[in-house]
Amino acid sequence: MSREIPVSDLMAVALARTIRDGEVVAQGVDSLLASLAILLARATHAPSLTWITVAGGVNPDPGTLPDSSTSPAWLQGTRAILGNPEFYRLAMRGGMDRMFLGAAQIDRHLRLNLTVIGDRDRPRVRLPGGGGAAVLAQVIPHVVVWRTRHTPAIFVPEVDFVTAQGNVEAVVTPLGVLRALDGRLVLDARFPGVSPEEIAARTGFPVLPPGPVRVFEPTRDELRILGDLDPGRRRELEFPRAPR
């Protein structure tokens, strides 16, 4: 494609493509980009997915992307409403296939930190915490993480605190897609205009595979449907002013 594709569009498509048709999918709090990705997957290659929103709705039909992942609009058209206890019981019974989670730090062992930056007892930054991430990352077989920044401070050799670890299979950032391979993260695809060398320089541990890295390309249909689902581009709210 000749025109430059916004990073938010690339990330939404990359997240959507991790979903398989027929899966039961959920996302965490403040997850507009992941919510949009689920909507996109349902409108394209995964029409039979079952979606449980953070608001408790099952298979909602909001029409377009609401302004918050906790908005009551996520209950529009829902077939049922699950409370927190039902949500976690379903996950622990093996009833969920895929979960989208965020993280403040990610390390080479695919461990996530959402708790503190620095020493646990005297942290430089105290984060909101992982909620149920410690459990969910263990019991949901496919966990996908996304960050709207990609720096060595985020991708660290060892996280300052292990909030969650388990079934992380992919990480999507403004630079590309990394996947789990033999217990470590390896670059799977780079976004247009991003070199493998840039990704290596902005990651705190080795991620380059021995061979060439493919360039990720969304289709025209995927980009068109994204525009229909989020005409106001609310997906940009998750990004800093300079997305990369």
Automatic annotation (TrEMBL):
Cited InterPro entries: CoA_trans_fam_I (IPR004165), NagB/RpiA_transferase-like (IPR037171)
UniProt xrefs under SUPFAM superfamilies: NagB/RpiA/CoA transferase-like (SSF100950)
Keywords recorded for this protein, A-Z: Transferase
Name of one Pfam family that matches: CoA_trans
Superkingdom in the source lineage: Bacteria
GO MF, one annotated term: CoA-transferase activity
Membrane spanning stretches: none
Homology family: Belongs to the 3-oxoacid CoA-transferase subunit B family.
Listed name of the protein: 3-oxoadipate--succinyl-CoA transferase
Species for this entry: Candidatus Segetimicrobium genomatis
